Structure formats: structure tokens, C-alpha cells
Amino acid sequence: MNRTGASVLDADPSDPTRSANVLAGLLVPNPKRFPERGPATVARLVEIAEIVISETPRRERIVRSMRKALGERVDLHDRIRAEHAARVTDVLLRELNPTEGQRFAQLLLDSELSTDEVVSLHRRHKIPVSELEDDLLPVRGKGARIWDAQGRTYLDLDSNYSATNLGNANPELGQGLFNQACQLVSQKEDRIQVARARFLKEIGDLLPPSLCCFYWQNSGGEAVDKALKIGKAYTGKTGVVAFEGGFHGRTHGAVAVTHNPAYRQPFGLSSEPWVHFAPYGDLNAVDALLSRAGVGSVILELVQGEEAGVRPADPVFAQGLREMCDHHQAVLIVDEVQTGFGRVARTAGDWFASQRYGIEPDIMTIGKSFGGGYPVTAVVTNPEISERMKPGYDGSTFGGNPMAMTAALIATRQMRRLNLTERVAEISRRVVRGLSAIESPLFLGFRVAGMMIGIDLISPACVREIQDRLKTHGVHSSLSTGATMRWMPPLVITDEEMDYALGAFWKSLGHVQGDYSEKILDAAH
Ligand code: PLP
Fold this sequence. Notes:
single chain; alpha/beta; 20 helices; Aspartate Aminotransferase, domain 2; Aspartate Aminotransferase, domain 1; disordered N terminus; 3 domains
């Protein structure tokens, strides 16, 4: 069997020996070749039979035969035992036609556990700090597409919060990570290593030239935390200006500078004396705060995402902020965790929002798509700030480990090779044209920054209805802020796929509008 599973299904359906081996190998995988998998459960076999075999009486007969082959006392959630695999394989080869057999094998390869089992395990074991999204179980991806455990395909408009800009599966990344994992997995942040040197040798001019010093982390929130610490240590001032509508993550420091009080209050962080919020765009308010003793840093997103529903900063504000920080000798921290690596490009070369706005931050945080979806983040700064940090100020076990550095190297190389910023600028214009042509009383307007797209609808309920409707067209969008639906598709989405998503949106508006009209008519009668 091929490691990625791709060639597992290449078996000629008319070659029964090969097909039998493939099926048996999926029912009870060889643990040396597939250490990440386990034998299939009975529940999954029943689920797959329901998907693959449409005629009820035939399906029921095949399920009965499979259960008989598994022995009398087997429970739905038991895993298949090795001694039963051959008997189940015989049933499947006898009963399924070649097309059904291949589909059965693909679904088994996608997951050996049933959707219900996966959902109930998550429900039982998740600490509910966020709502569990169990509307689909993604098992496989390619480019901007995702397949679920039922074999349905969706166009992905979330890209895991902009982490999978290079697609939902990336063979080059997979190969590089496999090679590195077989070589050396983990090394602490403060030890030298080859993988990091490879990255540093190649990163070249992708980042603004002055930002050449890195502190490696594993999540965006951590990077924000460490950026705040570095800013404070450099200026010797603990006060930080942050903005209304801003979002910077959920670690203690990052959430303290995130505006939404609901995220801060439960943890006693609602009025941290070192955090000062200003209205986004209000230079006078920032000036007043920076004039206070002890306030030395400013942190912002240049395109506010999560909490503001895609709000690009006014260029006058962005440039004014840079000048104001210089004037007050304050540190300007631009959080590019979401906007970085081409997401908001307007022209070729806009790898970061700060380049789009023509400003150079003192400290920048990067993450999300940095590793093509593999977790790697960093604080980057200039040598002057970097030199003021002292050994012992911080430390990280996993930050910038060899796997992370390999992912960053391969992903950034690929972004360059694909001319990703040029592509984003081009497809962004296509999105603007497409959305401009759509009219509906439910659709109030939109904002587009590169491929960060905010679509204003009449209410949060309407957003949910449109997102539900989009799913029926095979388009998956789950991000929203109030009455704004947010789209951040993988940056490798094709023109055809983007047009399809826009068409599905237009159809969904028509459908939901029809439902609304009926409701109004019903109410009137
Ligand atoms: N900063 C910004 C601007 C973000 O959008 C996010 C996450 O959405 C974060 C920081 C936190 O990143 P993470 O979820 O990787 O901690």
C-alpha cells in the first residue's frame, strides 16, 4: 500500500486477488505500514454499506452477511479482528460490483471509524471552550476541496482560518515532513539545527528586509504574547494600545489585547491596567494614549478579521500610526497572523498587509499559513530590538522545531513559485466583479481585501441560513461575525471554483429569500 493511500485504490477491479488484498489490508491494516490506523469498526462497515449500496433489501442482506462473517457476539463499536477480515472481504467481493467495491475501499481508507463514533467521542471528551462543529467530518483534501467521511465533496471557503492557503493537502509538504520525521523530529528553540538553517538561507526577501530576527512559536496567540513581551522589554514600558474590533488570539496576553469583553471577563482580564483600547482609525485617541507615561507599544491588525468582519484600515490611519509611533518612540506591532503570506495582497509582492499599506512594523507576528497548515509561527523584529533581549527572557520546547522549519521552508518556497500574491490580486478582482453583480434584498454589501472577504447580510440568522444552503450546493463556509459572512478560501482556489462559489451564493440568496417571502405571506394570512 502506498503511504498516502493514493495508489491503494489503483487495484484493477477485475483482478480479484489484488482487490481482496486491498480490502483486507484496509479492514485490518498492517500496523508496521500504517501505525496511525486501527482495524475498522463494524459501525463503519454498516455506514459505508449505507452510502455505497442504494437498494435497501440488497444492502440489508449484505450487512447481515458481513455480521455473520464477524461472528455472533460482535458489537457495533467493536473493531474487526484479523481472523475475520478474510471472511468479510469474501462477502464484499462476492456481493459488490467493481465500482461499489472501489468506493467501499476509498471510504474505508478515508476513515475506519464511523461518523457517529467520531462525533460521540468528540462530544464526550471536548472541554466546551468553543462550539463543536460536527456538521461534516473532513477526511481528505485536494486544493480548495474537502471530502467528508460520507464521500461528499465541498469547496472550502474557510481554509482553516487561513492556515491552508496552499490547499487542504499538499503532497510536497507531506513528503518533506515525512522525510524530516524519519530524520529528526524535535529540537528545542535554542539549539542549532539544519532544518532552520535551510529555511533562513532561503527566506530571502519574502519578509520586509529589516525584520530579520525570529523568535519561533507554535500558535498565533503565543506569537502575540511573545511580541508583547519583547515590545515591553525593549521600551521598558508596560502599557499597550490595542483597538476596538481587534482580535489577537486566546492566550492570556493575546486575549487581554483582544477587544471583545466576552473573551476577557471570565478570566479577570476585563480591565488590565496595561491595556488601553482605542477606536480603530482614531489617531487622536492613540496620540493621547501614547502621551501617557508608561505606554510604549501599539498592536493592531491592518485588516481586522475575526471580530470586525473584514475591516481594512484606512491608509491614512495606518501611515499616521507609523509616524506617531516614531514620534513617541513607541513600538509598532503588526499582527499578521491572518493577513500574512499573501492573504490580503492587492498587487504582486504584497506578502504582508504592512507592504500593502507601505509601512514597516517594528515587530510582526506571523503564523497560520506560514507552514502550509502545519503549526509554525514566529515573532519577527529588527536587530535593534532583538539585541535588547537577554538569554532567560523566554524559551520554548517546540518553537521552530525541525518539522516546523521544514514546513515553513517548503510552504514559503511554494508560495514564491506560485507567484501567490499576483494570483491573489487577480482572483480578488474577480470576486469583486462577481459580488458586484449580485443583487438581493438580503445582501447589504461586501468588503474585499485580497482574499479576505466580508459579506454583509441582513442578520446573523440569515448568515446561518445562507451557510446551510451553500452546503447543499457543496460549498462549505463556517466563518461569520454577526451579520457578516466571512470567506477566506485557500489561495490556490481556481477561477472556476470561485465562480462556482459565487453562483452558489446567488442561488442560496434566491432560495432563502423565497423562504422569507413565504414566511411573511404566512404571517399575513
Ligand atoms: N492573531 C490574529 C490576527 C488571528 O486572526 C488569530 C487567529 O485567528 C490569532 C492571532 C491567534 O492565532 P492562533 O489561533 O494560531 O493562536
